[in-house]
Fold this sequence. Notes:
- The chain is mainly alpha-helical and 122 residues long.
- 60% of the residues lie in helices and 0% in strands.
- The chain contains five helices and no strands.
- The protein has helices at 10-33, 41-69, 75-82, 92-95, 109-116.
- The chain is rod-shaped.
- The chain starts with 9 loop residues before the first helix and ends in a 6-residue tail after the last helix.
Amino acid sequence: xxxxxxxxxxxxxxxxxxxxxxxxxxxxxxxxxxxxxxxxxxxxxxxxxxxxxxxxxxxxxxxxxxxxxxxxxxxxxxxxxxxxxxxxxxxxxxxxxxxxxxxxxxxxxxxxxxxxxxxxxx
Length: 122
């Protein structure tokens, strides 16, 4: 029965539960007007139906909330992109010092600090 109403949003399930309770009440009023004693099975069936519809709406709202809070990218995907790939070959750019080493420009703040300190390397 719950799959039959799976296309409804949670508010639709709640509305159907209220309609089921209203129909149960109207059925009771209709049967009690005839003067015959009303069987309690009418209440049981209407109550169970309303409960199932209300519970279905609650479950649906929980599923929608969980889906909204789910991250778009899994943590395994993020970690896979963060971990460097090991190729087994050394990177020539990182193995040795650069071919040309130049000091700071003459008019840079670092060059002025070195000049004031007596030429000592900092």
